[in-house]
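Can't attach files on this board, so I'm pasting raw text. These are the components:
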Amino acid sequence: GENVEQHPSTLSVQEGDSAVIKCTYSDSASNYFPWYKQELGKRPQLIIDIRSNVGEKKDQRIAVTLNKTAKHFSLHITETQPEDSAVYFCAASMSFISNFGNEKLTFGTGTRLTIIP
Amino acid sequence: DTAVSQTPKYLVTQMGNDKSIKCEQNLGHDTMYWYKQDSKKFLKIMFSYNNKELIINETVPNRFSPKSPDKAHLNLHINSLELGDSAVYFCASSQSGGSIYEQYFGPGTRLTVT
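---
Top answer:
Structure tokens for the assembled complex are below.
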């Protein structure tokens, strides 16, 4: 099955600096890579995702890059703000057109990001 | 309007008891999931249902029995609770059909077994 590794497990950055979180996956058939943000005591929420036919995607201060050959993808947050403090999870999944409901997300182990004011 | 809701939010019970968690989504999605998040924050899928049919059943003890009465509801019943079952259980939903859509998570149910 799929295995997703995520680094670092904790990350502290000064407000205004950039943060980078990296993930690797094992199954070359995976084609969908979402990133979820989980604030303390809250539900995970999707912040950005990328599909395997795209190398980079950007949404305001966050961007995700994907290297299919190396099987790794990264989350970049620029101009960090205190409200970016949370646990971030990467995930990988395969899309099965004929097998509805089998879109199993395999999550990384999470990165606790702390923004220092 | 709450997209994915779960009840109860907190559940404290003793070892050996049986308990249920309920989940409802009003997004019109056809697929629902149960995830377990342990004390180290690791998120792992347990089950998925598509239109009331069980699709994913990870290696979960058969003390855990999901039930989907319709595609908007997915319940989780746990028999003979053990200390190791203490975790936060998240329900999620998505719309399948040829590509992967966002999975929307519920607020979670914190289960504590004493």
